[in-house]
Amino acid sequence: MTALRTHGRRIATVTLGAATMLGILTAPAHASSWSSYLSGAAPGFESRRWYDSGGTNKINFTGCSDNGSNRLVNVTLRKDVTGPDPSYTKAAFTNCFTSASATSSGSWADHGSGNYYFVVNDGATNLRVWVKSLTVSY
Questions:
Q1: Closest of 41, 33, 111 to residue 74, by C-alpha
Q2: Closest by alpha carbon to 108, among 86, 76, 62?
Q3: CA nearest neighbour of 97 among 127, 58, 136
Q4: Which of 32, 39, 53, 62 is the most buried (most CB within 10 A)?
Q5: 114-132: per-residue pLDDT in tens?
Q6: Could you tell me which residues come within 8 angstroms of residue 130 by beta carbon, excluding any fewer than 6 positions away?
Q7: Which residues are within 8 A (CB) of 53 and not within 5 positions of it... i.e. 6 or more apart?
Q8: HEC profile for the chain?
Q9: 63: left (phi > 0), else alpha (psi -120 to 50), else beta?
Q10: Are 99 and 63 in contact (CB under 8 A)?
């Protein structure tokens, strides 16, 4: 009977250990991100590209200013494809203009895997924007 209990504990320990290792090795979805800043970005400025295997894309701007009195930066998510790149909902970032530590956020639904980028103030004229810190999570 004692041998049976010991054998059962060993199986439980090995199973628990394997489950723990699997949990450690399995990366959570959307574990990727990158950070940067913008300095005098002109209308139509395109960010760097990033590969998303599918899921939500989130963009945060902290500490915004512009060369006018607009106090608004439009951010459009685009997918890099052959032919015209589709654009998704435009987010109007305004809160980031209230202080150097204020953040504006935009979140875009899953549009499938692929290379993505964002465009600022697409279609505007003579408007430049500075962003102290930006983060893209995907």
A1: 41
A2: 76
A3: 127
A4: 62
A5: 999 999 999 888 899 999 9
A6: 37, 38, 39, 40, 41, 64, 65, 66
A7: 113
A8: CHHHHHHHHHHHHHHHHHHHHHHHHCCCCCCCEEEEEEEEECCCEECCCEEECCCCEEEEEEEEEECCCCCCEEEEEEEECCCCCCEEEEEEECHHHCCCCCEEEEEECCCCCEEEEEEECCCCCCCCEEEEEEEEEC
A9: left
A10: yes
pLDDT: is 24 or 11 the higher one? Answer: 11
Size of the chain in residues: 138
Residue 58 tokens read as 């989130």
The residue behind tokens 């010991």 is 6
pTM of the full predicted structure? 0.76
